[in-house]
Amino acid sequence: MTDLEIAQQAVLRPIRHVALGAGLTGKQISLYGRYKAKVDYRAVFKKRKKDGKLILVTAINPTSAGEGKTTTTIGLADALRRMGKNVVAALREPSLGPVFGLKGGATGGGYAQIVPMEDINLHFTGDFHAITSANNLLCAMADNHIFQGNALGLDPEKITFKRCLDVNDRQLRYIRSGLGGAKSGVERDDGFDITAASEVMATLCLAADFADLKKRLGDIVVGYTYDDKPVTARDLNADGAMAALLKEAINPNLVQTLEGTPALVHGGPFANIAHGCNSVIATKCALRLGDYAVTEAGFGADLGAEKFLDIKCRTAGFKPSAVVIVATIRALKLQGGAEKGSLADENLGALEKGIPHLLRHVNTIKNTFGLPCVVAINNFPSDKPAEISTLLTKLDEAGAQAVLSTVFAEGGKGGVTLARKVIELCEKSNDFKFAYDESDSIEDKINAVVTKVYGGLGAEFTPEAKEQIKRLDRLGFGKTPVCIAKTQYSFTDDPLLLGAPEGFKVTVREVKVSAGAGFVVALTGKIMTMPGLPRVPAAEGISVSDDGVTKGLF
């Protein structure tokens, strides 16, 4: 059966019952039908309880072979619950871009899914639409301010804040807006980001509460004046209206796994072009409600996990207790040079060549960030006994703990061994640290990530990037975390350079501030903040039957 068919055949518990199991009363949730609800985060924050253990699930760099990070996250949560543990999962919301494009959704797979799967992967509770509307309202008010006389002196050629849309659409990356004469606005260069990469998304996800969200929205820099002074959403009096659009979206969404484990799903920034983590508020709620909070960060440990640890944990004061790194034998063989069409064939040579890729991620988590970790080998039916044995032996020789996981096929039952190891790691103290100090220069922070996380020699900055850094330093934005936008497929900025390359440098071509989110963004290589659709978009296979049943959704 497909993931969608498995999800549609599941017998779901009414969300009221799931909420009660998580310690939430009817007054602390707002129902969105029978199986979805918004959680009043304020009520959860008031609960007098010691926060639970925070478990981060990350992965090796993604490949077309698939890694199963979200599936493992959900399966681990179910496994912990099977063992009698009080656990709450905290996940990101799917973007419509991958849903209708190429990658798919973000609700797990097989028998480790969150449900109702089709609702979550499509409109869900409307958070993405609210974020898109708030973002585009700010853009409209900025352009209207210029049209109505431009009292602030906002230079149309120095507007840095883009419109957004939650659909992959390369046609909108670079546009000329305001065409049609004087009555149609001020003509200028413009463009769109995908909503998952927007600053409003990052701002919502890093806000501590609604008061903090309002402040952060006001801090968003729209552009610069003719004499190079920043103009913010607060200067345009747009922050209040933006907050009004987001007053419901700030509350986390409650759903359940196929096995009835509560899951908070909230916020969805991409990890290759944004910070890649669910909201701080959802994670805090999971920690307050559960003895164990299982969360995930997007793409590989070089992207999502680094940003989770260096940005989100720094911002919110979180300290993880354990990290799970998901890997597959198929993907490691691809990292080791095997052809995509031959991944089902036994290939010990390619596997051994791919193992250093995994070990670099293990080294990052253990030595750069000082956290205990376990490798979860996401078991595929095509994995050969000799390959499994080789991988476990090589990891053991390298001092890396590893277990097999079969949660895709067996749900929580297939993750019990992993759960036992995670509990063991959680009971140990750790020496969590960041990859850089916030007081370091922008260049030093970027270099620290390239050397300590990617394994490279450092970063090279284009002349434009150097000038942009000077401006940000002058304006007081130099002492914030850095969010590096980089291809998810490689440790380098070259998506074709797989494995564990050495001796490389990463080129930084643009540096800009996301003042609302509270970090500086460094764009590397050819990374785009508005993806395009593939030759055959997934949207071509999606439809709805006459009786309202969704078809073709993974």
Counted beta strands: 25
The number of helices is 19
Low-confidence stretches: none
> Major sheet: size, sense and barrel closure?
12 strands, mixed
- Output mean pLDDT: 95
Instruction: Give the % helix.
Output: 25-40%
Please compute the radius of gyration using only Cα atoms. Answer: 23 Å
In oligomeric terms, what are we looking at? single chain
Strand content: 15-25%
Shape: globular
For the terminal residues, how far apart are their CA atoms? 10 Å
The secondary-structure class comes to: alpha/beta
Q: What is the structure about, briefly put?
A:
The protein has 554 residues and is α/β, with parallel strands linked by helices.
Features:
554 residues, alpha/beta, twelve-stranded mixed sheet, four-stranded mixed sheet, 19 helices, 36% helix, 19% strand, globular
Would you give an account of this structure?
- The longest helix has 21 residues, at 127-147.
- Helix 4 crosses helix 17 and helix 7 (127-147) runs antiparallel to helix 10 (239-246).
- The strands form six sheets. Strands 1, 2, 3, 4, 5, 6, 14, 15, 16, 17, 18 and 19 form a twelve-stranded mixed beta sheet that branches. A four-stranded mixed beta sheet has the order 20-22-23-21. It has a three-stranded antiparallel beta sheet with strand order 7-12-13, with helices on one face.
- The protein is of the alpha/beta class.
- The protein is built from 19 helices and 25 strands.
- It is 36% helix and 19% strand.
- The radius of gyration is 23 Å and the shape is globular.
- The model has no long low-confidence stretch (mean pLDDT 95).
